[in-house]
Design a protein that fits this description.
This protein is an alpha+beta fold. It is built from 23 helices and 17 strands. Bound molecules: adenosine-5'-diphosphate and magnesium ion (MG).
Length: 727
């Protein structure tokens, strides 16, 4: 049974009845019941095997084949006890989402008593015929081999009748073909560097990790209406549609009460998440009508990312059961807020110390300022690359519009941390950081409010929020691994530069803490230009950012250049996260995806305009023409104009829009064909960006103008006001 891109989640959960147990039972009764977690391991693995696998999960120790046989046997037993018949290696190709290839446990050739086969080898490694996945030239078709290899640090889980095993996906020569491989390597790199710096600070033996708490925004739309919009079905966004007279002006949707139908969906979604051990915690309405958010408690990056991908898949199937479609596109509707996925990122120790958390003592605060300064420097030196990590065809609609971070990376620190750094620049010694403050509202029954030591700035793409950085430019449909891998790697490299200088000073006889303090000050001094606390949406900022040397490019294909600069290659090769060849292949894949997406949009728009909109507009134009002719017949040449003036005007406007849209579509067809003939590399992507995207916008204005003129009853597509408001 080989079935790629088959969405197990959709199939499996669609069959299941909606169980009503969530409200009536405690979460702890079913939390993680579909995960091969420690509780399951205690039941299905012997103590020695457990000890070894825990060591692998926690310390990355390599599993030997005998142990993996025991794990496979226990995992299989557990899965079969849960009614599972199939297993799949679950991986994250660069096309986005996740991919699976299902194999049955049953092996008809087996002569044993039990015909369910699942060996340690099958658990650890598989070779899917994955030639259809993009590799950016890493594999020629004649060596299309790709291997998936088990990632024991993310637990296996059950979806419907299938056991899903999280894996990395690499080529025959070991090059990364997925998002997970470099993420794991980047976590190891930052762990190495951060632990070394902590040792220099007098904290030896600390193991660190990167942590991630994502906030997933999404839109819901009624499934029937969705299926009547070919643009939503094929491109995940509306290519045409006039804004509704009411959308989000009143801001009455944000944190407003959640409609009952949506609430039922959310409850069901949370129930499914809990069974899979996804620690979702927060749910609320977002700014736009029909827009919502779900967020979990943060976890180690690897786990958080697997959980986010799983959530995006589960959401679709749960929405389907509730007759909704879920839209994860960054900008499904023009003129209405888009969706992002804020990535709350931090580095912390296993013993619970957040390295971006200010403390109470001077040494804790030195540690805090040191990790902060290094992070700011890493982001400053590589701001173009960090931006490239979130730049996609769909997210580019959002970045730079006045609703999401601008397409310029800067960091907001908040008044108190900013003040501490400013003070440090002037002082030779350690500075104080203002802590949380309490104040009384003067209402006796309300206790004192404790206010955080950071205020907020919604326009900042990379904002410090008390104990973490919140990277807000990430798109709602993205795999967070892209940006998190880059953040981890950049920080690891910067820390290593920092450590080298400190070590040199220590060798020359200086006190390590003094050297760290001095270097923290100088590191911050050299990257102050990344800090910006003002309005990121303003025109003045664009001018100022350019002066500061920050990257202001907003063209997606051009932004991709950052993946292969000398500096990027040096950093990624030094940290052993990605090689030059892998970086080049990634860039190629991203450009290819960009070309494909815009090309699909162009073709879909062509079809919509030619086959849906124009025939209807012509029909309405004819009704008006008929009406004018009739008026003329009744009132005669002289008098009829008095009554037909507005119709004549309307006919003129409609005719103009029809002919403009038609001729633009013809030009678009010719252009796309010409670009396609030249492949899907950088040159083609630039053409799509510079020429095709503006044409799509232009055609849209004519169609949207027709929507306002043509009889509402005749209009062939559901309108924004119907799509956006859920009752
Ligand atoms: P917001 O106020 O930005 O909407 P939320 O409470 O919705 O914040 O989400 C914040 C996210 O940040 C949550 O997933 C939370 O677990 C996560 N978070 C909190 N502390 C940290 C940390 N130290 N490192 C990473 N993520 C964190
Ligand atoms: Mg947030």
């Amino acid at each position: 049974m080989v079935n790629f891109r088959f969405d197990a989640v959709q199939r499996a959960t669609a069959k299941e009845p909606i169980e009503a147990i969530a409200p009536s039972r405690e979460t702890s009764d079913y939390y993680g019941c579909n995960v091969f977690n420690r509780a399951a391991m205690r039941k299905y693995l012997d103590a020695d095997t457990r000890r070894t696998i825990y060591e692998t999960i926690e310390r990355g120790a390599t599993l030997d084949t005998t142990v993996s046989e025991y794990v496979a046997a226990g995992m299989k037993r557990w899965a079969i006890d849960h009614g599972v018949t199939h297993y799949t290696h679950w991986f994250q190709p660069l096309t986005g989402g996740t991919a699976e290839k299902h194999d049955s446990f049953a092996d008809p050739r087996a002569r044993d008593e039990s015909i369910e086969k699942f060996s340690g080898k099958l658990l650890c490694q598989q070779e899917p015929d994955a030639s259809s996945f993009p590799s950016g030239g890493l594999r020629n078709t004649f060596e299309a081999r790709g291997y998936t290899a088990w990632d024991p640090s993310s637990p296996a889980f059950i979806i419907g009748d299938t056991l899903c095993i999280p894996t990395v996906f690499v080529s025959y020569a070991g090059e990364a073909l997925d998002y997970k491989t470099p993420l794991l390597k980047s976590d190891a790199a930052v762990t190495r560097a951060a632990s070394e710096l902590l040792t220099l600070m007098g904290m030896p033996g600390e193991v660190t990790h990167s942590y991630l708490g994502w906030e997933q925004e999404y839109f819901l739309v009624d499934k029937d209406l969705y299926s009547q919009r070919p643009d939503l079905v094929l491109t995940d966004r509306t290519l045409i549609g006039h804004v509704s007279s009411k959308n989000q002006q009143l801001e009455d949707h944000y944190f407003g009460s959640i409609p009952a139908r949506v609430m039922e969906f959310m409850r069901d979604l949370e129930f499914e998440c809990y069974k899979l051990g996804i620690p979702v915690k927060t749910r609320h309405n977002e700014v736009a009508p029909g827009q919502y958010e779900i967020a979990p408690v943060y976890e180690t990056s690897n786990l958080a990312i697997d959980h986010n991908l799983l959530l995006m898949s589960v959401m679709k199937s749960v929405a389907d059961k509730h007759s909704f479609a879920v839209l994860l596109h960054e900008k499904p509707y023009a003129g209405v807020n888009g969706s992002g996925k804020h990535c709350n990122w931090s580095i912390g120790t296993e013993s619970g110390i957040g390295l971006f958390s200010p403390g109470k003592t001077d040494s804790e605060n030195l540690r805090f300022l040191c990790f902060m300064a290094n992070t700011l420097k890493a982001v400053y030196d590589n701001n173009a690359l960090l931006k490239a990590s979130v730049m996609t065809a769909s997210n580019s609609h959002r970045l730079g519009a006045n609703e999401a971070p601008p397409a310029i990376i800067s960091s907001f620190l908040g008044t108190q941390v900013h003040a501490a750094f400013e003070e440090l620049l002037k002082s030779k010694d350690m500075v104080k950081i203002a802590g949380k403050k309490g104040y009384s509202l003067g209402i006796p029954q309300i206790p004192e409010l404790i206010v955080d030591n950071t205020d907020r700035n919604r326009t900042s793409p990379f904002a410090f929020t008390g104990n973490r950085f919140e990277f807000r430019a990430v798109g709602s449909s993205a795999n967070c691994s892209g940006p998190i891998t880059i953040l981890n790697t950049l920080l690891a490299y910067q820390l290593e530069q920092f450590i080298a200088v400190v070590k040199k000073r220590v060798k020359a006889g200086e006190d390590p803490l003094r050297a760290i303090l001095d270097e923290t000050r100088e590191t911050y001094r050299s990257c102050q230009a990344i800090c910006f606390d003002g309005n990121g949406y303003s025109e003045e900022w664009k001018i100022e950012a350019k002066k500061r040397g920050l990257d202001c490019e907003s063209s997606v294909p051009v932004c991709m250049d950052a993946y292969t600069t000398k500096q990027t290659v040096k950093i990624f090769e030094t940290e052993k996260v990605l090689t030059k060849v892998e970086l080049e292949s990634r860039k190629e894949v991203f450009l290819e995806i960009y070309c494909k997406r815009i090309s699909i949009e162009a073709k879909t728009l062509g079809d919509l305009v030619t086959n849906h909109v124009i025939p209807v507009a012509i029909r309405y134009q004819n009704i008006l023409l008929e009406n004018v002719k009739n008026l003329k017949e009744i009132y005669g040449e002289k008098e009829f104009k008095k009554y037909a003036a507005s119709q004549l005007d309307l006919i003129k406007c409609i005719s103009e829009d029809i002919s403009a849209a038609e001729s633009e579509i013809d030009r678009l067809d010719v252009l796309v064909e010409k670009i396609e003939a030249n492949g899907e590399g950088r040159a083609a992507a630039v053409q799509y960006h510079d020429k095709v995207v503006p044409m799509l916008e232009n055609i849209r204005t004519h169609v949207d103008s027709l929507e306002l003129m043509v009889d509402d009853q005749m209009w062939p597509l559901p309108k924004y006001r119907e799509l956006l408001f859920i009752h």
